[in-house]
Amino acid sequence: MNEAPQLSVVVPVHNEQDNIAPLVGEITQALRGLIPFEIVYVDDLSNDNSLQVLRDLKATTPELRVIRHVKNSGQSTAVRNGVKAARAPWIATLDGDGQNDPADIPNLLAERAKGDAQTKLFAGWRVNRQDSGSKRWASKWANKIRSNMLKDDTPDTGCGIKLFERDAFLDLPYFDHMHRYLPALMQRAGWKTVSVPVNHRHRTSGVSKYNNLNRALVGVRDLRGVAWLITRSRRTPVEEL
User: Fold this and answer.
1) In this predicted model, what pLDDT tens digit does every residue of 194-206 receive, in sequence order?
2) Domains and CATH numbers, the chain
């Protein structure tokens, strides 16, 4: 690609071989002709055929870049490494399982165009979730508890589709599972965030990497940590003399 990208689409994957090609095709369909973009896939040391699928797609998709972890490190690390490798000033993220709809990225860009310079995060809000009943129930209560503790005024922080400024993201404190707390962390840094209704789809292939129990156990510890970060935050405007 000769034109510098204005948007980098970062997609973390672990064992999603059957979901990669359809999702790449949907991303290119949604963005070609709309904005100069690149796609940065981060393979979190998959042990299926994901990496080979990505290598094959590079031959037919000039926007595609692929980086790979040398050890399995989790989704937050994959997102962060993808953002660090990205060349555009703004980032869109998608889960690699195909449940997020790339057709929503133009909607997020449109919301950004209407927003002000202080809004650095446009977070997807799955208003019609297609997960199992138990998963929706667990998520509902997790969101309620999180909202009460963090006061982040965000109905759905677990949605993988987001649009944010690269520099603002890289300035946030990094920890495992931080991708689930981006609205609160952005607000802690002094930025505004907006929730945007987006589509949500059934997983058609592969298996989820999480279950309700491990989400809950990790979530309790993380919530306490993020709440502590918020109480310890200090933001001081500066002026140059």
Assistant:
1) 999 999 888 877 6
2) 7-231 (3.90.550.10)
